[in-house]
Amino acid sequence: MTVFSNLAEAGLGGIPGTYNLVRSFLNVRVPASSPGLDDGLVDGVPVWALIYYCLRCGDLEAACEAARQAGPGLGDIHTLLQEVNSSADHRLSPQTENLVRIQYRRSVRQSSDPFKRAVYCVLAACDPQEEHSEIATSLDDYLWLKLCQVREEESGDSLTLTGLQILLTEEYGEAHFNASEQPLLYFQVLYLTGQFETAIDFLFRTGDPLSVHAVHIALALFEVNLIQLPQSIQAPLISREAADKPASRRLNLARLVMLYVKHFESTDPKEALQYFYFLREMKGGKSDNLFMSCVGELVLESREFDLLLGQLMSDGSRTPGLVDKFGDLVDTGKIIEFVASDSEERGLLEDAVQLYDLAKKYNKVVQLLNKLLSQVISSPPIAESVRERVRKQAINIARRYRNLGVSGGQEASATLFLMLDLATFFDFYHEAQHALALDTIDKIKLIPLRQADVDHRVSGFRVLEDGVRRNIPDILLATMTILHNQYQDQAHQSIREKARALITYAGMIPYKLPGDTSARLVQMEVLIS
Distance between CA atoms of 20 and 156, rounded to whole angstroms? Predict the structure, then answer.
């Protein structure tokens, strides 16, 4: 803008290239009459300023041309620039650097030309402590000059990258750069000096609207292995380990992603899944990798089972979910099993049934259905209740398994059908359809209604699953209540025999009935007798 806003003064001409552009820039910014400049002019502009700004533009060939145009008087600097331009790392050899530094200390340091001093410092890192405030008038200029003087070896007057990082973050810090008012400026300071972890942490801490950019920059750097991670995902967002260099920090990318995603994971699980995918190689959580753990949390939080993991069809097949979109990069089957197991551990058994069903773990499905049914079958059949929801789920699954010819295990499947029959019995009981209820419990052959069946039913009790056994007290009470009501309507000897069979059975089974259950059974049997 400086040149093109002052074309007449700049005298750009029609020849493209860095050399002519810098010369035109200097015509505007550093006139030939500027005091204190050494070694004359080249093409009407100060020679050291021309060389410096060519270097600042990153054009070594243009800088070499400027030195060549200056003639024999700058033959030494022309030789140095040619060596830098021809070397693989664009640096002077250590021997040459030492010679240049000696020359700088003897004479160049006392020069009144700030551009001359800057050129020597850029080429040979002569005086890292010099701020060059006359020409480094912007942050970009300051950082460029400092980074040009960074060297790997540590010596008394050298500037290492670690030393520069400590200077900027600890000696100067956020307050010096007015980071609260100029967050992007301070982020630039950190980022351009290789402090990626600290830069991302700072940007994320600034909150909206910059925190979102911190996350995406972190993910981009992580994908190209430029982010240091802590040993544990439980570490703070930014941390340092004992073996790290003084200015080095580690960024807990997993924590960063989860902090960001929590704001929308329940409302937009599809988007959240894309971010969790970046954690697929990390260990942690309840699974082999963090991606699976996060997907498990996401599924349970959003309850978007069908969207994320796929939907089970009537033929037993599963339609692809969003997780399947990652193809062979993830094992959807393992993820479904993990989420199912996690749900079971949390006591979310209804969800676990649905997920195990999706994973084709039929035995587990039937076992959990039996457990769920055992907890609710004796309750009244109220619409939309847990009992009705579980019962409906069990009926649908049992019917589908039968049609597909799959088994959840012989004993467990038998128990499932027994539970469903018992649910029917309790339906009739609560609806006061006593005859149907009594007929149902008689057909189930679980408890005796005749004295001759007592021993056989007691023997059968020993092989019942625990879920069925826990319901025996309620079954006995319901059946005895039915008999008591029938006896009140019509006293009959057969009713007394049925009641006596129940009491005998209750006393013989190897199961301690609750005290109030035994008392009520005896009381009703006495009333019948």
Answer: 40
